[in-house]
Amino acid sequence: MSKAIVFLALGFEEIEASTIIDVLRRGNVDVNVVGLNAKEVQGAHNIKFIPDTFIDEMILEGYDAVILPGGSPGYKNLKSNKKVLRIIREAFKNKKLIGAICAAPAVLAETGILKGKNCTIYPGMEIELKKGGGIPQNKWIVEDGNIITSQGPATALTFAIKLVEKLSGTQMAEQLREKTLTKLVLKQSSPELEVKTITAEHDADSAISIRNLTKKFDEITAVDGLILDIKKGELFSLLGPNGAGKSTTINILSGLLEPSNGTALIGGFDVTKNLDKIKSLIGLCPQKASVFNFLTGKENIELFGNLHSISKKELEQRTKKLLEKLELKEDSKRQVKGYSGGMLRKLNLIIALINDPQIAFLDEPTVGMDPRARRATWEFIRSLKKKDKTVILTTHYIEEAEALSDRVGIIDYGKLIALGSPLELMKKYKTKNLEEVFLKITGRRILEGI
Fold first, then answer.
1. Is there a contact between 368 and 342 (Cβ–Cβ < 8 Å)?
2. CA–CA separation, 265 vs 275, rounded Å?
3. 346, 354 in Cβ contact below 8 A?
4. Cα–Cα–Cα angle for 318, 320, 324, nearest 5°?
5. 20 to 30 A from 11, CA-CA: which of 180, 334, 362, 424?
6. Number of domains the chain is built from
7. Same domain, yes or no, for 190 and 248?
8. What is the pLDDT of residues 359-380, one digit of tens each?
9. Is 382 inside any structural domain?
């Protein structure tokens, strides 16, 4: 196994750094991190952390590559860090693989490290030539096996795949490329260089990106290193036996729980740092009804609508429309303490959607409903997809997931063990329905506990 050392104390863009680290690890590369501000990602990636006060040229012994994911804030830090620059010069001298992204390539050029090197330049994302000469920004530069590139999560992903190709071989790189990359036609903004079509990650398609998400309760690991992308406008079902980690995952994604390790991006915002922004994008229908029994159904809806600062007129219109669609108009005039289980689920669903969210988390939304009400709710959930909303559904009704879902993820003991459309999974496991798939790969029926 190849070993790579990543310098993060230089300033870095978190998404780019996380992308690089994740891909290298998937590509069978042992990754260690150096840097004072690397502690934030240490837990998220389960990586050994080395304070930069302990580093010198000797640190290169045993390592095959030096990676510099320095973002714009790191430009000044890297340029003034003589110790790190000295290590990089030594790495070049010893023909180690060098990987640099964002501002780092410009620093290597301006400090003379690349002087006399015969570099081949390939275009990257949105080309802009650096004023005053030097190397262009946002490019691939390949020299004697040493790779340098720049800027953005999409380029970072391609960059990391290239590093894997050099460190773990073409076959491993191709496997990763097939699993994680889609083709993009790049925009030409400089006539000096020819712009080609390369492979890159299409981040704009993802509503949710989950990276190494882990949640522990004392000695119990409820969610274990979950990695998953959910596309915008997708209706995605998360299935699993009782206690498999479904609700815990939903609670982390919606900000009700903090992860022990890892993170997730919701609409591009980190659940560990940007909850205020995330809450404006999402709606949550929790497993247990979150309502006030002494209020009527309509009063509950209006209360939560006011918490979202929805205008009075807009709130009235949304409330009327949702009550009619879910056939709760007459019952909304009564106090909630007299509601049946199915009526509570309908009310919970309306409250979750009253802010017209882009992303809806529906945790067991049809539990307690009679068959007719459940089928009507299915149609309502389908209507959300037609409005290009992203819906994440957890359910114990496998036929519900089979009927509604674009894709299904099956989770067991906190790990994602199967992923695909219902038809893909049935074909793969040679079964007649999704319930047989579930039974075949978990050895349990969905209602069995662990």
1. yes
2. 10
3. no
4. 115
5. 180
6. 2
7. no
8. 999 998 998 888 888 899 999 9
9. yes
Instruction: Tell me the Ramachandran region of residue 249: left when phi exceeds 0, alpha when psi lies from -120 to 50, beta otherwise.
Output: alpha
Mean pLDDT of 299-323: 93
Give the span between the Cα atoms of 160 and 248, in whole angstroms. 31
In this predicted model, what pLDDT tens digit does every residue of 188-229 receive, in sequence order?
222 332 222 222 233 457 899 898 899 999 888 999 888 888
Q: What is the pLDDT of residues 246-259, one digit of tens each?
A: 989 999 999 999 99
Contact 378, 362 (CB under 8 A): no
Report yes or no: 192 and 245 within 8 Å, Cβ to Cβ: no
- Assign 3-class secondary structure to 117-175: CCCEEEEEEEEECCCCCCCCEEEEEEECCEEECCCCHHHHHHHHHHHHHHHHCHHHHHH
Distance CA(295)–CA(289), nearest Å, equals 14
Query: Where among 181, 200, 219 does a domain terminate?
Result: 200
> What CATH code is carried by the domain that includes residue 40?
3.40.50.880
Tell whether 280 and 335 lie within a shared domain.
Answer: yes
Considering the domain boundaries, does residue 179 fall inside one? yes
Tokens representing 107?
Answer: 């620093």
State the average pLDDT over residues 262-284. 89
Q: Which amino acid is at 192?
A: E
Q: Alpha carbon of 442 to those of 52, 200, 278, 446: distances in Å? A: 45, 34, 33, 9
Same domain assignment for residues 247 and 161: no
Q: Which of 261, 255, 330, 271 is nearest to 296 (CA)?
A: 330
Q: How many residues does the chain have?
A: 450
> Which of 146, 174, 200 is where one domain is finished?
200
d(CA 305, CA 299): 10
56 shares a domain with 192: yes
The whole-chain average pLDDT of the chain stands at: 75
Q: Report the distance separating Cα 391 and Cα 404, nearest Å.
A: 10
Cα 98 from Cα 144, distance rounded (Å): 10
Query: Phi then psi for 4, rounded to 5 degrees?
Result: -130, 145
Judgement on whether residues 344 and 233 belong to the same structural domain of the protein: yes
Provide the domain limits for residue 371: 205-442
